[in-house]
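Q: I'm building a small set of examples for a reading group on sequence design. Run inverse folding on the following structure and report the sequence directly after it, with nothing in between.
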């Protein structure tokens, strides 16, 4: 084969790869990220499922009382602390088991439970309308505008959780500070950017001033000092909540953008909450928010004829678990929830109940529904990503 012919083949391969990027790149990036997480922990890192632990033992191992360590002894924790600074040492998900964690977790549950379901729906609808009005006002007549879904959603959820915490509408200054800090965390988590601590420090300073002025939530964790309480608010509500809800909404809207038939069905019967709930469940199953969750074993855990030794770092791979158990498990099909019992599907979008489940697990799905419906009332969604 001549050099010219090889050149044409290389060019064709490059064009084919570029044209198919939307289809293969996300999976490749996720797989690489999971691999990096496993390598970070060296010999102590155990992928679940993986060579040593089958998918059938995933939930049992995750639920074991000895799979309870969060930070000490895991190199991966150092990486998360870098991503979540400032204040990762008091972030709810990285506190070790004990009275401090119990107090923080109880406070978070109480804060989220203060609003009734109808109050949550009203709050999210108001904040969504405000941000969508802002988006429409920024559009130039006759010109299309490219937006990043996550960047549109972050101000929305920043406003929502500010009002949840402080009990008053979110000022523009606070919304912008929260959204900028959350976006910085999300980009660092995705390994697409280094952190920019100045953005996060500005939010820390704002929250410190708010608490000093007496504008405190009804309850803060008593086990934390004043500086730690500021970090608790920033990490729990204005980082994790805003990042996760923004990513979840973006995943949901992108899934709908790729499926015009689902959009049509939702518009034809806007009161059909069952269909929207199935779409949300399927989005969280096929595109889980948690890539890998890690736990450090505090004691040996029996497994088959052997044991997982104390001090091991268990790397629970959510996509691998969700996409197992059925030949079409990786296929997006909301109507599978009409055919299959939920217990038959491998689906733990908010973690395991016995091991620090997401505190917003009762709040997230219904508020996602409200946000998505607000967008669908105004826009027809489309994507070239397939």
């Amino acid at each position: 084969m001549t050099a010219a012919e090889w050149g044409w083949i290389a060019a064709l391969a490059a064009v084919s790869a570029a044209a198919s990027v939307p289809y293969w790149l996300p999976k490749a990036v996720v797989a690489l990220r999971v691999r990096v997480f496993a390598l970070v922990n060296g010999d102590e890192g155990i992928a679940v499922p993986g060579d040593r632990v089958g998918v059938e033992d995933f939930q049992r191992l995750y639920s074991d009382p000895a799979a309870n360590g969060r930070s000490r002894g895991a190199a991966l924790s150092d990486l998360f602390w870098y991503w979540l600074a400032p204040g990762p040492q008091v972030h709810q998900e990285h506190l070790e088991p004990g009275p401090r964690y119990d107090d923080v977790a109880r406070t978070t549950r109480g804060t989220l439970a203060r609003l009734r379901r109808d109050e949550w729906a009203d709050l999210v609808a108001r904040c969504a309308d405000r941000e969508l009005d802002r988006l429409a006002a920024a559009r130039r007549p006759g010109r299309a505008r490219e937006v990043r879904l996550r960047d549109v959603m972050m101000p929305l959820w920043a406003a929502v959780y500010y009002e949840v915490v402080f009990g008053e509408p979110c000022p523009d200054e606070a919304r912008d500070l929260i959204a900028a800090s959350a976006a910085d965390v999300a980009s660092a988590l995705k390994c697409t950017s280094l952190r920019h601590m100045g953005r996060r420090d500005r939010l820390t300073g704002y929250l410190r001033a708010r608490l000093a002025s007496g504008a405190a939530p009804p309850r803060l964790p008593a086990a934390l000092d004043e500086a730690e309480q500021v970090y608790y608010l920033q990490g729990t509500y204005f980082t994790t909540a805003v990042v996760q809800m923004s990513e979840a909404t973006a995943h949901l809207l992108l899934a709908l953008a790729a499926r015009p038939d689902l959009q049509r069905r939702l518009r034809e019967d806007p009161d059909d909450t069952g269909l929207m709930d199935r779409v949300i469940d399927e989005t969280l199953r096929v595109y889980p928010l948690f890539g890998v969750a890690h736990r450090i074993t505090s004691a040996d855990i029996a497994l088959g004829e052997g044991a997982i030794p104390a001090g091991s770092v268990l790397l629970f791979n959510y996509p691998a678990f969700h996409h197992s158990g059925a030949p079409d498990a990786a296929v997006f099909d909301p109507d599978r929830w009409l055919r299959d019992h939920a217990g038959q599907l491998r689906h733990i979008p908010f973690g395991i109940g016995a091991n620090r489940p997401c505190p917003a697990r009762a709040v997230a799905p219904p508020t996602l529904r409200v946000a998505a419906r607000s967008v669908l009332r105004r826009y027809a969604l489309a994507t070239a990503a397939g």
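Confidence is low (pLDDT under 50) at residues 1-25.
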